[in-house]
Amino acid sequence: MIWTSPGEAFMFRSLRTRTFGQKIHSYSKVTSTNDVAYRLALEGGDEGEVVLAREQTRGKGRGDHYWFSPPGSLSFSLILRPQGIISSKVPGLNILGAVGIAITCGKMFPTLSSQVRWPNDTVIGNRKVGGVLCRTKCREEKVIFVVMGIGVNLNIEEFPSSLSSTATSLKKELGYTVERETFLRTLLEEVEELYIASEQDFSFVLDRARLLSSLLGKQVRVQTGQGEIAGLAQDLDEEGNLILRLESGIQRKITPEEGYLRL
Predict the structure, then answer these.
(1) What is the dotted CATH code of the domain comprising 219-261?
(2) What pLDDT, on a 0 to 100 scale, did the predictor assign at position 260?
(3) I need a labelling partner for 158 at 20 to 30 A (CA). Which of 167, 168, 187, 253 fits?
């Protein structure tokens, strides 16, 4: 890959995808790649265009949490224009992205056990190594476009104290530097394969999410607006919502919008 001046589009010539990453807008530093990609999509950016940055100063995580993305991280956002889906289906794309990260880690680094933590994280040994955040533009319930933001802790050596017990990087796990362009290329190929398959049958993605899940079969605690709920993480439903079996035996569906895991 040849790095270009900020915002300039270039082609990733060795990439084996139909559209994902065939045009990449590269920046040295932005506030948030999701914000830049959202503006690009509003201006007519095509499906598969990528906004890539070496550093984000205001990276965003789920629930407006700050996403730590210094040099050494991989931060990019991908424009998607899915056909004929409604807004309730979009949370499944967070799972798709997290599955893509886990598959990429497994393919490139077979000694690492990378898993998917519902609804949008990839973890190694229960420490977050990557995450996904989708932002959507809708007209009524119809999705016009989705910006899928992906962050992976590639070569971060030190985390802030607030993250040191909950986050890790591939470099910390492997003991050596990960080649950024190779990882990005592999990840884009894996995410596109999942995305194309999901347009025909989303169960393809869910089956892989179940196999890679760090939660299913375990007791978990979920914080909701009505309080904390504890139960057995039993399954993912057809839209990627978490199904809990409570102590009473009742099954409870938890959507990503209404609850988050207590770790």
Answers:
(1) 2.30.30.100
(2) 82
(3) 187
- 251 CB neighbour count, 10 Å cutoff: 14
* Distance from C-alpha of 27 to C-alpha of 47, rounded to nearest angstrom: 19
219-261 has the same fold as 9-212: no
pTM for this model (two decimals): 0.94
Pairing of strands 242-245, 127-139: unpaired
Q: Is 10 exposed, middle or buried (0-12, 13-18, 19+ CB in 10 A)?
A: middle
Considering the chain, what percentage of its residues have pLDDT values greater than 90? Answer: 84
Query: Is the model's pLDDT at 241 over the cut of 70?
Result: yes
Burial class (CB in 10 A: 0-12, 13-18, 19+), 142: exposed
Going by C-alpha positions, the residue among 79, 101, 73 that lies closest to residue 9 is 79
Q: Name the CATH superfamily for 9-212.
A: Bira Bifunctional Protein; Domain 2 (3.30.930.10)
Instruction: Give the separation between CA 87 and CA 215, rounded to whole angstroms.
Output: 25
- What is the distance between the alpha carbons of residues 106 and 103, in angstroms, rounded to a whole number? 5
Domain ranges of the chain: 9-212, 219-261
